[in-house]
Amino acid sequence: MKMDRSKKEADANGGTKIGRAAGAKPESYLPIQAEVVDIDVESSNTYLLSLRPMDEEDELVAVNYSPGQFLMVSVFGLGECPISIASSPTREPLQICVREAGKITQGIMAARVGDVLGIRGPFGNGFPVGSMRGKNVLIAGGGSGFATLRSLINYIADDRRDFRDVTVVYGARTSQDLYFTSEYGSWQAAKIEVGITVDMMDASWKGNVGLVTSLLADLDPVPGTAALCGPPMMIRAVARDLLGRGFIEPEIYISLERHMKCGVGKCEHCTMGRYHVCTNGPIFSYDVVGDLI
Amino acid sequence: MEKIATICVYCGCGCGLFLHVEDGRIVGASPSPAHPVSRGRLCVKGWLAADFVHHPDRLKTPLVRKGGRMVRGSWDEVLSLTARRFKEIREESGPDALAVLTSAKGTNEENYLLAKLARAALKTNNVDHVARLCHAPSVAGLGFALGSGGMTNPIRSLLSSGAILVTGSNTTEQHPLVAAHILEAQSRGATLIVVDPRRTQMAQLADIHLAPRLGTDVSWTNGILNLIIDLGLVDEDFIIKRTEGFSALKDLVVQYTPVEVERITGIPSGDLEKAAVAFGEADRAAVVYAMGTTQHSCGTDNVLALANLVLATGNVGRDGTGIYPLRGHQNVQGACDMGALPSVYPGYQKVEDPAARERMEAAWGTDLPAEPGLTAVEMMEAAEEGRLKGVYISGENPMISYPDRDQVMRALSSLEFLAVADIFPTETTALADVVLPVASFAEKDGTFTSTERRVQRVRRAASPPGEARPEVEVAADLLRRLGVDADYASPEEVMAEISSVTPSYGGISYQRLGISGLSWPCPSRDHPGTEILHQGSFPIGRGRFSAVEQQELAEDLDYPLLLTTGRSLFHFHTGTMTRRTHLLDRERPKAAVDINPADAAALGVRSGTMVVVESATGSLEIEARLTEEVPVGTVYIPFHFAEAPANQLTARTLDPTSKIPGLKRTPVRIRRAE
Amino acid sequence: MTGTSAFFLRREDLVPLLEELAETLEVVAPVLVEGEAAFATWRGGALALDDKNPLASPMEFFLPKKEVLFRYVQYSGRYTFSEDPPRARLIFGMRPCDLQALKVIDGIFGAELPDIPYAGRRRSTIIVALNCTSPGEGCFCRSMGSGPGAEGGYDLLLTDLGRGYLVEPGSPAGVYILRAHQRHFEEADPEDQREKERLLALAGEEIIKRGPSLNPEKIREAIDGVDWEEAGRRCLACGGCSLVCPVCHCFSVLDQGVPDGERLRCRDTCILSGFSRMTSGANPRPALGERLRHWYLDKFVYIPEKTGLFGCVGCGRCSRVCLGEVDRWSLFKEAAE
């Protein structure tokens, strides 16, 4: 039941308004409390935290979101920062992928199972999963940007028949920096083509070495819709490559990262020209932001 | 909401501002439009001046060391312990085993009472403060040349200048409101000459920028004077009527030809000439300087050379002229005025002068020591050697701000008793036997005296946190416990006593201090104050020239780079306040060493690389930042950051006259960190 | 007291009226602090209405420079939160430019996901505006269409006619005040209304005469022609232009206190590099010049797109506080009419 409902919500939310969970008011600065129920180590400086809202009335927050949306996560005493949701609304628990960057992310990573974090959201538009249905989908990630794409990949995998060819390309600095390695097999089993590459060779790595764009040359994805997240250099290179393959600008979606304080379009930290990344984004199509990144 | 008019706590500009108070809590600040310096403006620190006041880290209860741990104590317990230990040390080792370091962040009233505590209660002249590390050379140098170490003119006088020479001052960052006046003068047509090895924003905005090698200030100053004499641009009338000693100076500076100056300083002779012409030809010219001039082992010589320049061109005693030693702390001028110095009573009356001593003995009703005491850096040496045993430190953080951090650590650790009063825990309170929580500037009444000798009212806008008390009460309490009458009902009564014993403050009372305050000397109740000094004559009669020569510069092949230190716009001093101000700390969250890209390339260092900087004194690990702001061969570290304390590297080489350490020039070497 | 839209308040009745209002509300008004006009809680006595509009805008009563969003208290790993309710206030003497700023902020903080603390204060604040018959130097509200006369957005509007004030209600709350305190008011003479128009016309001319006279549409076009690198070189990064601007509203959020403490919201400024810098160190607007440009683009392009109103109300405060001696509007010389 829950899954069906969340799918509908995610489709409805994607690309439009902020998802509203029953228990939380997104415009309130008061977070809801969520317990850390599990912690996975994704890389030396990245943890995957599973969260469960503590109050019954907030439970829907854990499923009422869309791939590509983010949460404002609090460690009381250190502050609050935006973290993208790494899980798919089709699967519980709610998960966030946290990479050590500043003192708040350090504080989140210091949390142990049973500790309480504050969360607000979900915020942002999310990927337009509704309009992606029935199309070929290319998903390209670089570095820590892969966390938000994992949400989309699992969302598609759980509803695979609604999408045509699905291809994932992902690059990290070294093999130690690759996220979600245990899941690649399940994606392939769901008929998702997966290409992985690293920048730097090491003894344990037998796979590709090179840029994400080199994977595109190998896999030769059929034009359709694309979802990108990663460092600006990688985004630019992949977008250029895709345009050369016949993808069109309005169908290339990019997830952007900015400094944020509120999540609701007020504090002005995340402005990018006329856009607020928190409310107009974080997913933008290339025709809108191509010249801003 | 209430709005309380007060004075900013940071630099010496002494800006007037309003604190916005809601339900007993300070929620913001805004500039005072009618204040003569701020004129409705503030720098970024000023806009955020009170942001640290309610920080949860504030010291709220007195602390006392018991069994190696700091535990809560009552005020009565810590003050009676402090008084008892000071008495015991005095009886066992004599009064000169005790010392007081006062605070340039404290009010005049607090500094006055703490200096009185040292002299009248502890019976020692061992009292000093951070001025030792900033303008001691100005007090010595300008005191000799002009008869007063104070800034000769008010800041707004710069608006009438035709040429302004700024040296050793990163004015836009350290004294932004002075910079605003200088830039306004420039937009009205004044020529701005900036002499600084670094390409600071001020240097970039200058009409003429001279970038000398570190430590060659006497050379270029003498060189400019030589050119001015050559070009016939000296004010002969002024020299004859109001000065003495010119001919000896003239004979000396002949050696400082443009070619010779270029050899020593690296300043192209053509640029030196341009500066000499601009300064010499201006009808009204001013010299502005700060720590880059004074913090050298030849700091007093540097000041004397600049004084020569203004005297020879007759640029004293008129609007638009003068010499501006910019004070770094909002009340470092006042702390000096109040006699928080080892050699003088309030108003610079010498302790060695029997007449002055008799006057003070009569006023304070007790006998006073005759020998000048130890200076701040000498105190650290005396403590290390065991001669100094008990110290009271008010709001200073020598662990970060003094040279040779390891030695300061040894010195303070070897004391038998250390009492520290502060608003936040610091690296220095960590070494204390008792910690006294005191009120911040926003929680007390009193006065500050700004860099332009402007005595201004500071007003209480909120209550101190927890049990914290204004230090004026703490000092009075200690005075009483040590047997000296100190029944002051308010800081205003302390000011009444100050004005009765300090000739230059004789006419100052709270009632008279309006929005513009009063500039000293203000000797009597009907005196309007003195904005421009030396108008008809000098306090010493004639102005004195000094034939000062370039000091030999020590070079060390093992340490091929020169380190200079300073402050950033976004932080103040050891960062106890600014690093607890969210927007300021966010702006400059960590230390970095500035390296010229050419040097960096040779060292194999990129921006963000961790490097080890080593000097003969010590070493530290710090991130590198590549910038053309520093010239080849020179590196720069701001000293705010406890995690990368620049003063780990600096040495205690003291200026013989003023005892200031040469913080601005330390030979270092750099390598990539492992 | 019905049927008429304007009333007259005699000069000597102003303080008694405020005294009555202060019995139930906190009255904020321009008062003299050490001789200077500033908006603060009125505690009786004289008002500083003859002075120019105070430098610190009364917008701080809607968007405080610093406020507690909520307090958190930890008990065995879980938190409880508390928030302060907004306080009932009356702001007296708010000028048309600041009133216009409030309308702009309504379009940002009051619209689409309304900001709860702002909305609460907005609801609990009564505004008694004062038309600007003595404009300050450097004001250009007329160019921005925000003054010298107020148009809507107030509960009561006063115009100083010399011997007293013309009082016009603009909301049910305003009408209520007129009724509840009717002994202080008399019906206005039609001549009073004409006198108001005459005074505002004079003030408008005065503003134009003193300049700057600017055309916002032309400023918008001129932004890309400005040498922002040079402007950045002269900027001393004080942030004053944003901190004094009644329309600037950006903020930062931080926690103070462990394990119990407060989540604070404080005013921020996009002039600082840390404002947009991400924890990775990357900064979308690394240079001061770019940040200054953004400041103007926001006011003349982005805010109008969002709210239909210019993000500048012509109060002139940014030029008054500029530490870098940049006349903020001479940057757009070609934009002058």
From TrEMBL, chain B:
Enzyme Commission number(s): 1.17.1.9
CDD domains: MopB_Formate-Dh-H (cd02753)
Record bears the keyword tRNA-binding: no
UniProtKB keywords: 4Fe-4S, Iron, Iron-sulfur, Metal-binding, Oxidoreductase
EC top class named in words: oxidoreductase
Pfam family, one: Molybdop_Fe4S4
Region (Disordered): 655-674
SUPFAM superfamilies per the UniProt record, alphabetical: ADC-like, Formate dehydrogenase/DMSO reductase, domains 1-3
Ranges for domain 4Fe-4S Mo/W bis-MGD-type: 1-57
InterPro entries attached to this UniProt entry: Asp_de-COase-like_dom_sf, Formate_Dh-H_N, Formate_DH_asu, MoPterin_dinucl-bd_dom, Mopterin_OxRdtase, Mopterin_OxRdtase_4Fe-4S_dom, Mopterin_OxRdtase_prok_CS, Prok_molybdopt-oxidoreductase
GO molecular function terms listed in the Swiss-Prot or TrEMBL record: formate dehydrogenase (NAD+) activity
Name of this chain's protein: Formate dehydrogenase subunit alpha
UniProtKB/TrEMBL annotation, chain C:
Occurrences of domain 4Fe-4S ferredoxin-type (ranges): 224-256
Highest taxon in the source lineage: Archaea
Cited InterPro entries: 4Fe4S_Fe-S-bd, 4Fe4S_Fe_S_CS
Protein name: 4Fe-4S dicluster domain-containing protein
Native organism: Candidatus Methanocrinis alkalitolerans
